Amino acid sequence: MGKRRKFSLGLLLFVFIGLLLFVPASWATTDQSKTLASTKPRENQEIIKVGLFPYVPRIEQFKDVITQSWSEIEPNVKLEFVDEEQWDGGYKRDPDGIDVFVFDGIFLEYFVKNNYLASLKSNEIDKDKDFLSYALEGSQFNDIYYGIPQLGCTNLLFYRQNDAAKEKLANATTLTSVYEVIGNNPSSEVPPPSGEGLLIDLSGGTTCACYYVDIAMDLTGQYTTNPDLPDPEHLSSEAIETLRQLVSMAGPTQAQYEGDSYERETWFGKNHGRANVGFTEGMSAMGQTRQDIEFKVMPLGNEHNINLFYVDLIGLNHDLESNPKRKSLALKLANLMSSREVMVKSIKAYKGEPPQYLMPVRLTVFNTLKETDPLYDKMYQLVSSSDPKAFRLGENSREWLQKAKRKIQQQIYEQAKLLEEGKI
């Protein structure tokens, strides 16, 4: 009897200690499960796939701002950003499976022709009167909207305020007048010495081909959204000669140098070169030197100058046409991405870094940014006085670029190669 009683008390004590150990552990497990469940996407949660334009100084800033702004209006719809391997802005990749994507407007006709873009009505674009006219026109094909403008850019000539010939550069309206100031750059140094040569990136085939089309249009003096894209075996000798003049000012070694994005702008900020050709966002890499420079649209013609501006457009995948609910969500996101509030936050100074100096296409974005940064006021004055035209390459853009870009590069550098070999 006594022994049985002792066993019972021991058993009770064992059970009591076990409860003390088990109950808190089970509570912790339950709390942890709740936490994990709250961070996992629900099985049926709506997901919108997004492809941003990758060639900006800080794409992560765009992602952070868009994600935060979207969560405030659609907290139950997740955004999934694809990487550059999946989406490159439209230069080589197609937007298969991407709901909302930002693409270079030079390919608008290509994407329409190949059924990648959903059409939009004008009343589906928020505050469309706020867009600069060239950008809004650049989002249309056959009077139908196929995208919402987000950013613009054009080839600019940057030069220093203390340049002895700054007045000549400021007043230059032809490529020849720029050449008369800068001249040939015989140096093969990369980067070039201070005050010598034109810093310009002509290392990429697509870049050279776009310069070719821009120059060829200046030669005709006629703007078109469907330019004549010649057989690569029969390129314009005048356009090629103009491109060679750019190479002469740069020096072939520097012109062909393949470095990091905005590396030439970093050099220019450190006093290398005489002048620089690039986009406005290059100023983000110039350091405080950006306060001591002037910029203007780079003249590429000698008789006519049609100021072609690139337009980055936000497109909706044509596959969304079969799902009105998802198309409505995608349209809401596209409008958010192009809104004044999101664009200002996406391109202004961020986490200790300077503004991205990307070119807005909304008047209200310009007005907001120029309140605190005089460079945005300069940028707006440039755009508003340039009579910009949206740069387009027509429906055969991709195919032509693939065939022509290497041919163009070969021809513009052929003369430099012969010079190096002493054959001319």
Structural features, described:
The protein is of the alpha/beta class. It has helices spanning 2-39, 59-73, 108-113, 133-137, 166-171, 175-182, 205-220, 237-250, 252-255, 263-269, 324-337, 340-347, 363-370, 374-384, 397-420; strands spanning 46-51, 77-81, 100-104, 140-141, 144-145, 148-153, 156-160, 194-199, 273-278, 293-297, 308-316, 389-390. The chain has two domains: 46-152 and 310-384, D-Maltodextrin-Binding Protein, domain 2, CATH 3.40.190.10; 156-306 and 394-420, Periplasmic binding protein-like II (D-Maltodextrin-Binding Protein, domain 2, 3-Layer(aba) Sandwich). Strands 1, 2, 3, 6, 11 and 12 form a six-stranded mixed β-sheet that branches. Strands 8-9-7-10 form a four-stranded mixed β-sheet. Strands 4-5 form a two-stranded antiparallel ribbon. A hairpin with a 2-residue loop joins strand 4 (140-141) and strand 5. Helix 2 (59-73) packs antiparallel against helix 12 and helix 8 (237-250) crosses helix 15 (397-420). The protein is globular and about 65 Å long. Residues 1-40 have low confidence and may be disordered.
